[in-house]
Amino acid sequence: MVACLLIYKVKPHFQQILKTKTKQPLAIEAKRQIAESSCKVLQVYNQKHGLNITHYIDEYITTVETVDETIDHLEGEMSTLKKFMQKIQVELIEPQKRFTTEELFEFFHERMHYLEALNERKRQKTVRLRFNIDGVEQSIRKARQIVDMITEVDFEQLKIDIDKQLKEMSRKNRMLVFYKRQQSEANVKLNAKKPELFKELRALVSIRKETNLRIQLIKHYNELEQKLQHEIHQYEITNKSIHQLSKTYRLPSIVNYVDLKSKQTNLHNTLHIWQRKVQIAEHELELRRIESHRYPEQIFHPWKYLQNPSSLLMYQHYHSPSTRTNDQEFLPKLDTRSSARIST
């Protein structure tokens, strides 16, 4: 109730303030001082009168409750009075029972005394409520004075500040739109370059595969070279022993000589075979290098069959008459005297 009264009394005052014309704009320091002083006054006012208003409201609520209790009590008194009147009527009808005027006077005197006490208590409560209402009105007047002080602040300056902030926000929004447009253009260019990028990646993968294949071939050729060097070493050892025997003119037995001769022939043949393999491998490597320079994305292998050559082709090639004559040129010749000695 008190809150509604405050709102009802303060609202016209706010309307009058809004209708008044704004004064000249104040400086920022003056505005800050006015705002600080008004904030301090409001805090003090809240600390001083906040509890009193709640206390007044509580007292008003208790008063309303006591009035309700009084109404209930009066209704009870009315019912008792009706019962007493009925009792009087019954006693008046019966001639045997009489009732004196003193009892009736005493009864009404008690009721009048009770009503006077009740009226006195109500009067005291109304006086207290009027005092509380005066305090609330005084606090409302102080609140109006504070509102008058606060309204002296220049609202036009606040509006100018808000306009500046809105302009700054619009500028930032334009910059954001510009950056988004640049990002979208960059994304379009990136999507256009993606096919070329994928093509380069596929070429890179093919180059890596070819590199790995060449590394494996080089390892294989190195192993073959090591085997060939080992066989050459064995051939040199055997040939050295044969040369030593030829120098001393002492030959071992026929069986050993034949075995050594067969071993020499076999080693010589295998040496030529491996030399030919090395030539073929070098030729194949050169062809692969040329093909890789010409067609880096697609490499043909026309010499695949040379990786595992057929033994029949090798035999036919290295056992032809021309190769045999060439092989005999490299073999050591026997001395005629030693052969004659063997025959004897």
UniProtKB/TrEMBL annotation:
Pfam families, per the entry: CCDC113_CCDC96_CC (PF13870)
Sequence ranges assigned to domain CCDC113/CCDC96 coiled-coil in this UniProt record: 120-285
UniProt-recorded name of the protein: CCDC113/CCDC96 coiled-coil domain-containing protein
Domain of life of the native organism: Eukaryota
